[in-house]
Amino acid sequence: MLPPIFPIMLDIRIVLVGTSHPGNIGAAARAMKTMGLTRLILVSPQIFPSAEATARAAGADDILHAAQVCVTLEEAIADCGLVIGSSARSRHLAWPTMDARAAGMLAVTQATLSPVAFVFGNERTGLTNKELDHCQRMAHIPTRPDYSSLNLAAAVQVITYEVRMATLAREGHASNQEETSRISAPVLEMERFYTHLEQTLSEIGFLDPARPRLLMRRLRRLFNRAQPDTVEVNFLRGILSAMQRLNKS
Ligand code: SAH
Questions:
Q1: What's the predicted TM-score (pTM) here?
Q2: What ranges make up the beta strands (E) of 60-101?
Q3: Closest ligand 1 atom to the C-alpha of 17?
Q4: For 107-119, how does the pLDDT look when each residue is reduced to its tens digit (9 = 90+)?
Q5: Alpha helix ranges (H) inside 88-135
Q6: Ligand 1 pocket, 103 CB below 6 A?
């Protein structure tokens, strides 16, 4: 018997950032459709729509037609409670990294509470650090270390396969799954918090805007790892406002 498509539609979206080759967009749509995912968001694609994308989609044109095109990554993920960057590289400042399997399981658990995004970078340059700043986790497909870069659509295929496996496992063993009842704050609220934090740190002289170093990146990493909920973010912003008032008085 064939496994069912997702009985509960989970909002696990695939976000492709700055894709150069339209063929990869089509192949990614095809990969998604085979694994039961439907929501594709394209951030500033170099060429879209295109006949090449449609040809490579091979019957997944419904996914391409419904694909949303955004100018910035922030727009694509604004309502997401969990954003997972997919990367071929390990970087200087280690983001919390998990393998594709663990990422698939985390995404499926989280998606029952809020939308989840998997973000993929440009074919040549991958995800920039600025793009990774929006990610709470990084997913890596464990390749051999000296030849680690998959074709973009192949990476989408592996990640979406893991999402499907995690969904099927969850349906079979729903009662064994640990439920998290906390809904983490959406990206938009986190961004407002980071702006407020940066402002306050500079007002109290902790952050020198002329020499910011990696402070904000490190702090983002800390708070993204914690995945605070809306109440917690408001609480933190209340503390910042109190510091600002005291500093001005
Ligand atoms: N030269 C780039 C590779 C880009 S491949 C780099 O070094 O980052 C295009 C995209 O495919 C990547 O941004 C990433 O999202 C995905 N990808 C490729 N290989 C991957 C891997 N081993 N694990 C996870 N994602 C991968």
A1: 0.80
A2: 68-70, 82-86, 97-99
A3: 13
A4: 999 999 999 999 9
A5: 100-111, 129-132
A6: no
